Amino acid sequence: MMIILLVLALLPFTTALQNGLALTPPMGWLTWQRFRCITNCQKYPSECISEDLIKRTADIMLSEGYLDAGYNYVGIDDCWLEKTRDKRNRLVPDRERFPNGMKAIGDYLHNKGFKFALYQDYGNKTCMGYPGVLGYEAIDVQTFAEWDVDYIKLDGCYVDISKMDTGYPYFGKLMNESGRPMVYSCSWPAYQKKPDYDSIAEHCNLWRNWDDIQDSWSSLSSIMTWFAENQDTIAQYAGPGRWNDPDMLIIGNFGLSLDQAKVQMAIWSILAAPLFMSVDLATIRPEFKEILLNRDIIAIDQDSLGKQGLRVWNKSMTEIWSRELSDGSYAVAFVNRRDDGTPTVMKASFEVMNLPEQTYKVQDLYKEDEDRFFGPDGEFYTRVNPSGVKYFKFVPKISNDVEEKTYFTSRI
Ligand code: GLA
């Protein structure tokens, strides 16, 4: 009887997915945004989607501290397949670019301490026209399990949109039954006008909500706007095991300035977003690498409470985003979307920042400003670069030591 009661008591807190994975937003590296569908290895040997690219990237992630910082999934997005299945209807990886097959990739990654992520599509073709899973779902899940895949990104090109609401849960059920724990990344809501988020959050570990990110500030900006404007609908669904996904990090590529790259890292961590880099780690400039490896910001993204932050203030193209953390601290980002040419001074009260009134030690997460104290007697001021961010952690100050006398509320 006790056991039954216990099971009943736990029921509302378990999801149908029940795979126990992605308790914090998954982190890693994925081919798509930077390497797209480059398949000509003669012409572009260091950029084509291939075994070499995956191994080289994993080697760098291991030797240069990315794995250590938490980026543990290495993923192949679209364009890894032969155009036809084999005689037994199984998927075949491109024979030239993946000469040893996908199990060998899985082994290589696992031996180095990584996990293996792979892309497929619920339709009869992937977005780039390679064979999709439709009609072969059970065989494909089985194949992925045999290759020791740890994470499936299931896209939604060439799918009858009305079939997604049953198709995605069905594929997830097959994943569960495969016996191999695999993270389930769904593109399901990105293709629908009115997604059923109750069902999506029940069946997927993460889901792409909206458009693909492109390598530009305007694309990044539009995603931030979409997430802010839809936060009342979507934020409540995020939590351990289930995450909204604003798409890959474009930090270190061609399109973002250093300040803009800092904006993406800050806002993605406020959003409790999956952090998938998509960049050439062999050539990334050190200042961008430093942003990707900012441990304090990664810790915010990975906070165990898993509560997605919100844009709490928005006026004259300046915004404040705020996220509550498990230890009672808050992450607060001041974003300036203006292109004035000079930094903009932003000021904020507790109410505006969505913070309980108390004294805080305020740490600048990009270490541009000195740490300061901020108490109920002041307004918070900061100066933010054009298309830039100032990102702080407000840590409640418990003790009454001498430092407290130096509340920093001065104007800039
Ligand atoms: C869609 C997805 C992208 C990427 C491409 C691959 O556009 O949203 O993230 O996977 O397909 O073709």
From TrEMBL:
Keywords from the named record: Disulfide bond, Glycoprotein, Glycosidase, Hydrolase, Lipid metabolism, Lysosome, Signal
The enzyme's E.C. designation: 3.2.1.-
Signal peptide: 1-16
Every Alpha galactosidase A C-terminal domain range: 306-388
Domain of life: Eukaryota
InterPro entries found in the cross-reference section: Aldolase_TIM, GH, Glyco_hydro_27, Glyco_hydro_27/36_CS, Glyco_hydro_b, Melibiase/NAGA_C
CDD domains listed in its UniProt record: GH27
Pfam families in the cross-refs: Melibiase_2 (PF16499), Melibiase_2_C (PF17450)
Subcellular locations according to the entry: Lysosome
Family as reported in the entry's similarity comment: Belongs to the glycosyl hydrolase 27 family.
Subunit structure: Homodimer.
Record protein name field: Alpha-galactosidase
Gene encoding the protein: LOC112046749
